[in-house]
Amino acid sequence: MTPLARTAHLVAARVRAVPPPVVDLAPAVVAFAAMVATRAATDPGDRLAIGVALSAIVATGLALRRRAPVIGYAVQTGALAVESLGLGPGELTPLVNLMGLYALGHGAARQRVLWGPVIMLPGILAYFGPDDGPALAPAGVVFLWLLVWAAGYTAARRRDAQAEARAEEERRMRQDAVADERTRIARELHDLVGHTLTVMLVRVGAARVVLDRDPGQARDILHGVEESGRAALDELDHVLGVLRPDATPDATPDPTDAQPGLASVPRLVERMAGTGTAVSVRIEPPADALPAGLDRAAYRIVQEALTNALRHGRAASVSVSARCDRGTVELVVSDDGAGPPPGYRPGRGLLGIAERAALFAGTVEHAARDGGGFRVRAVLPLP
């Protein structure tokens, strides 16, 4: 910001800090004093008291320029007409009247702003009434007064347009914020519920197969399903906690209610035991703790990739690797399943992975593996 712009900004801030009554009265008091001084210098006789009273009425109309611009200008114009016809035209009264006309064009409601030119004409006619000069002078004054009124009207319409644009921008930002929050919650619920249900369905299917042959193994599988459900409910409660009215960003987090991160991936894999899919995990922990949001996003990316391997690929084995090196977190999930059909299009799961990575300026690659299977690779830059 240049020094001139900074000075203008400071002056505008100081003007906005002035109480409204002072803003209304100060110009009126100055105008009244100037009109009285001019009238006293040009007409110091017995009519001075009448001139002072009319100047007070004109100044009162100017003081009303913001609260009641049409009434204030009508009062000014009436006093101007009486002064012009009874005492003779004042030197400063037309200028004060011009200020009121601009205020009317700038401050009056749209349905009342057209009263400005209507009220203006009688005042101008009265001002030039005693004058026998050419008609060109009144016509020029009418043109100038209309220009001033139009300037106020144009400034008001520009102000209204800017206010409408700001309101529209704020409304759009609120809508975008709501849409982003809904997308975030939907993504969390999809990743959590989708993964848990997939694991539970696969494990229940395995328990049904071995139920008659090995009831003990079936019992162990069902116990694992129960544990997966309980863990999922705990996570779901945490995700939905942001929707509670009493949830505040400044609340102290409960250490038992921590969000999952890369350190939770082995526990995630344990819940997949009994699905018939062997999962190998290799995580190279970072030297420093990852930011909470990025750590949670990495976990969700791995979780969704594992869900896809179970649900769509029906893989027999899946490998998961997470490596933090050179300012990035690289996540790779590969399976030996059926792989995608030719010309596949990403579904909600892969789109959710891409959205999570995009939040951290990351990239995602996914494609069929040579020899069968599917591979997802995400790279998230560290801040």
TrEMBL record:
Give the catalysed reaction(s), semicolon-separated. ATP + protein L-histidine = ADP + protein N-phospho-L-histidine
The yes or no answer to whether the keyword Amino-acid biosynthesis is present is: no
A Gene Ontology molecular-function term?
ATP binding
Which chain regions cross the lipid bilayer? 113-129, 135-156
Q: Answer whether the UniProt record assigns the keyword Kinase to this protein.
A: yes
Q: What is its EC number?
A: 2.7.13.3
Matching entries from InterPro entries are given as:
HATPase_C_sf (IPR036890), HATPase_dom (IPR003594), Sensor_HK_TwoCompSys (IPR050482), Sig_transdc_His_kin_sub3_dim/P (IPR011712)
Q: Which UniProt keywords apply?
A: ATP-binding, Kinase, Membrane, Nucleotide-binding, Phosphoprotein, Transferase, Transmembrane, Transmembrane helix, Two-component regulatory system
Pfam families membership: HATPase_c (PF02518), HisKA_3 (PF07730)
**Gene3D superfamilies documented for this protein:** 1.20.5.1930, Histidine kinase-like ATPase, C-terminal domain
- Protein's name according to its UniProt entry: histidine kinase
Biological source species: Cryptosporangium aurantiacum
